[in-house]
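User: Second chain of the day. Same drill as before.
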Amino acid sequence: MNRLELTGLTTHPAQVWGGIRLVPLVRERPVEGLRLHEELYAEHGHGVVDLGPRAHYTSVIPHGFVADWSGGGEQSAAYGTQLGGADGRAPRTARLQRHRHHRMAKRRPGDRLRFLPLHLALEGYLSLHFGGPSTAWEEWSRQALRDGLSPRAEDAYLGWSVRGLGDALRVFEIHPGQCGVMVYAADALAAAFAVPHPEDYRLLHPSLVEDLYGELIHQHALYGAPVAEFAARIPDGPGPVSLAGLRAAARRQEREWAGAHDTLFAGELLDASYAFDRVYRMGGFTLWRFLPPFRPGGEGQHIGETITDHKGRVAYLKTFRLSEAQVRRGHLLHRLAAAHWRIAGAAEALGTTEEEVVRRIRAAGFEALLRDRGRSFPGRTSR
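Assistant: Same format as last time:
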């Protein structure tokens, strides 16, 4: 498995609000046997996740998702997160008094798994070659050999601060059967989100403004011009006009839009190859997180997490677009690790000089790893 397969999800015409473009993803049939629920954390404050001995991740963690593969259907409540209302119905969520989490993904009683959406993927990026130099080459500081890349930090923006996103999510109606959305800012793909069931999407749709978005998306939304709206034009021609003919022409336009979107707009996400890391197996489903190939200077690259069924089809998906600087950092770390952290070997692989590799290490924010000690560079993974 090295690609994302969105079989069963159909692209519908875009909804545009200023510089924000929302592309609905609709399922003809829900994914059977899996449901997602949300749990909110008190005050939407900073959370800490214990990753293991001496390692933890800190960030703003407003909510978690609970995957339920018990087969209980719509009446199945995420354990410990939903309470009956006065009318006998279950409200969307109940607020939990919890700030510290054990693991990014943790089994709950019954066939349920709590995981932290997006943070699962971001921690995978932050922990990329986290151990640092494996050999005591003379270029590396004692701190690098003792602590590796601890701590590592990256900046991101909450959806509330992405101009126009909250309004777009509030204004547009949710399609019948909608199970996901692709979010664009100035027609740069910001995020893809998909869930197994339309009712899950209806409840989780507002959570998109609590997600994290990269710097490029924040800048595009702030400074970008309004994008072109989807417009279907039916050409004039001879012959009688009938309702059936107009309906067929409209559907043809929808198919053309879907084909253009999937090949042009979303190509950077769907055509790329990824390195998948299995997080948890849930009956016939598997939770993965994935990393891109980290090729600088190309199209946008995304990290994310997904739940797939036994055929590899996506039941759940959430992605985060990396900035070009983040892609360069990932590329540099890959090259250093492949050269066993020997700067001379990395310089040879990169086709440059050792001095240039040192400059790139400093520019990437990893100067504290070098013997001439410098500075190290909100999610943060540390130990």
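The two ends are 31 Å apart (CA to CA).

User: Great, on to the next one.
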